[in-house]
Amino acid sequence: MSTGHTRDEALRLVNSVLLPGFHGTEPPPWLLGAVDTGLAGVVYFAHNVPDPATAAALSAALHARRGDLIVASDEEGGDVTRLEAATGSSYPGNGALGEVDDTDVTERVARAIGHDLRAAGIDLNLAPDVDVNANPDNPVIGIRSFGADAAHVARHSAAYVTGLQSAGVAACAKHFPGHGDTAVDSHLRVPQLDADLDLLRRRDLLPFAAAIEAGSRCLMTGHIMARPFGDAPASLNAEAARLAREELGFTGAIVTDALDMGAVLADPGFGPACVQAVLGGADLLCLGNPDSAEAAESAYGTARDALLDAVATGELPVRRLAEAGRRARELAQWIGRARATPPPPKEDELPLAVARAALRVRGNVALGPAPYVIDLRQRVNHASGSRAPHLNRLLAEAMPGLTTTGVPAEGPTSARADTALQGAGERPVVVLAREPHRDAAETALLREIVTRRPDAVVVLTGWPHAVDALAANTVVTYGSARVNALAAVERLLGGTPHGG
User: Domain named Glycoside hydrolase family 3 N-terminal: which ranges (predicted)?
Assistant: First the structure.
């Protein structure tokens, strides 16, 4: 090759920055071949790890193939989980932790999550989410944030990093330079962060600085167009990386958000985005979540070939690729040292206690027998990948005779309310909602339902915002995890109040 490197040497350089996903619970041949030629690591999604035992076996097989391979996943707690996607997370997420507002508790919960990841052979947690939830209309951060106050988020971000890494699992603060004050989901298209550098420093960057000070081994750049950095998303932008390195003093590995997301997939396209990301200062490229075995192999091949071609033409300097690979290896070395230290004991009773403490209860929320449940939650959350049915399931298990119904997606408010309430009769009514404030039609429907049934209990799994103006009887859980649902069901069945 014109760079003076053989193709095998170039392939190893390229592989040293790639974190592909793959399909299924066993490593396919193409992945094993990549591992043997210097692949940095892999990223697990829910389909890879349907249960902890499968995750542990898969990780053991991959680490047996090469001991310094990085195994990564998203295990934020709360709404975003991979290891417990089928049942819901055992841990309260950032919204609940921020509401409790005890940094010692946040540290201990993160340590417990790290304990589970260690047992599953997962080395790098793509968490915590340290975004400041400054925009109530944010469609993808919301309850994944510790809150809307930058100093508050910074304290809890540092505590989470400390707790997670004390269990021997590397942390990754995300989504740099801040996804909180946006109104677009980067899974779909590019969000605009309309803040000047002064506002970024005073608000969005504070939690990243705190996470870096706490020793976060990784930082994830988001597909966010931030005004101070020009038109390219931060994940592909050298100015964003320079800010993290030179102003915040970050020396660890920068990993991109998934490069198969809509924000970069259409423009510049998957292959060019991989090249631009490395040129922009990324050290590890998260290739994303494939929906088939063929898609996974194709994504890896496209990324690999795009980088190889860029090296061959001189578009991508070998020194930049080598620098990125060095940082990835330094991360792997930290992980290797961390694996040699046994994790601390796990606090099994802590998560439910935290979920109870986070509950905010208002009015009369005790249910009578066989309630009628109306679920208004129609929007899928792209980060968690589901509508979180855990609350519905637990209510049905606890209350024989319960009925759950949805609502028509469209139509006049009165007609939708008629349909929603048509089977209720005199039974107690429970309304499940997540973010009604983001949708005028959903707000109107919720108001109509509780006007007709003022005794209805509204269970809100997101931030409360204006729910008190809509309903007299409310339970706010600050998250959709199974543990949040357990705490809510306990309260609805007449348990002792733990918040409010």
Answer: 37-327
